[in-house]
Fold:
Amino acid sequence: MAITVYGASGYTGRLVAAGLRRRGFSVVLAGRDGDRLRALATELAATEPGDSVDGRDVEIGTRQVGVDDPAALAEAFRGSDVVVNVAGPFALVGEPVVRAAIDAGVHYIDTTAEQLFVKKVFDEYSGPAENAGVTVVPSVGFDIVPGDLLANVVGRRVERATELLVAYDVRDWDMTRGTVRSAFGALTSGSFVYSDGEWRPGDGTTPYEAVTFPGNAEPTPVINWAGPEVVTVPRHVPTDRLSVVINASIVTPEFLQLLQLPAETVATIIDGLAEGPDETRRAAARFTIVAEATGADGRRARGVLHASDIYGSTAVIVAEAVRRLLAEPPRAGVLSPAQAFDAASFLDFLVPHGYSWAVETPADAPAAQ
Structure:
């Protein structure tokens, strides 16, 4: 089965392509820079030889194509089983890739964490994807899949959730240049919140001041986070309100300074950053997710997940999502991760890859503050 990775020569793209090779998929490395793609193909052939699987050789191909040529992009995707889009910022270059995959009749997933882009994909491409008979699953990465799945499991443990919380505590995270670029765009472009059972423009505030994370001595101060879970979770867990928060320390003084500068200056600064952390620093990043649901009867259920290696986790998640998408195809259309894949089963798959997760009984679940 052939998987096209668009944006393959970037930091996360290389990890994703290698992860797909390790799982036995033939990959087509696609993007704008042919030289970098060919160099990556040579590197992967040497480091991830991809022994034959089920009697077939695992191949590596390259396809140089930009997002400014829709016909060529669709033609590049035609014949693939799944397109994995890792090229960002998605708000700028993501939409042509979604459209081309649908036009080519190919399933699509991506690694975006950009909330506005995800909402646009649901709003504008659900019908076209359904009509084309393809499945589109945005936000298949570390920063959405575990939280979306955990919220699904927890939300089912209470009677009609009136309140849902997804909280992140992220430590020692050295962001890639692409992540910083996307985060800056997201923080300066507005966001949505989910309250009173509907999406509406947000004001950047949250009703939560702190969340109790396991292992932290004190409740951790948190801030509102414009995560795609705001868009994805209410589609599979009925609730009146959903809040997504993150530890306040994630927004450093340096990042706050960036927000005060002209966009052109910020772009120059970001272009000068290192592409991403080395393997040691990458593996050092760790995160905890707490998902808490409050039911109509006041009872609570609380799930906790621990993991590390943020970008490495994304590669593992993408490869498993591709496998499940092909092995047990969900319905056509645009779906959240928990709509496309069984939540508990996927979380269990991640356990041998450095994850741990558990759900507390409603009677034992402490309330967030």
Notes: The chain has two domains: 2-140+314-340, 145-310+343-364.
